Amino acid sequence: MITSAATTSTSASASMSSASDARLISGDEFLRLLVAQLTHQDPLNPMDGTEFVSQLAQLQSVTTLDNISNYLKTSNIGELYSSVQQWQGVMGPVATIGRTVHWFDQAGATRSGEVNAVVRDGSGALQLVVGEDRIAFSEVQRIE
Question: Please, what is the end-to-end C-alpha distance for the chain in angstroms?
Fold first, then answer.
């Protein structure tokens, strides 16, 4: 009887292994497989303790990956990426406050000065305030 149960467990293990090649098994499936393996093991030749600990570590990994996968499926990554880009678009100009920037004015002459503030223009674009001048961040040639 134990032999047939072990055979069933082994065949279940093989079918789960081949299924996992196609997709990541869930933590519940992995736990069911581990319980089946423990239930049907030979009592006279139990599983090695280090192997059991290794399988528990694998269960934790599978559970963590499953949680990450579910999070990625339910979250809107595009929206998050857009938010990060907007944040970076603001942080670049803000990081120049107190630093010296160099740019070309309308006549093509090189100008420089310390950034005092960052403001938005009428269209919502960020501009650096250097003395009386307002410079688009894209016009900055060098930051010191």
Answer: 79
pLDDT digits (tens, 9 = 90+) for 98-128: 989 999 888 888 999 999 988 888 887 888 9
pTM over 0.90? The answer is no
Dihedral Cα 107, 109, 110, 115, nearest 10 deg:
-40
Hey, which CATH number is domain 92-143, 2.30.30, 1.10.287, 1.10.1200, 2.20.100? 2.30.30
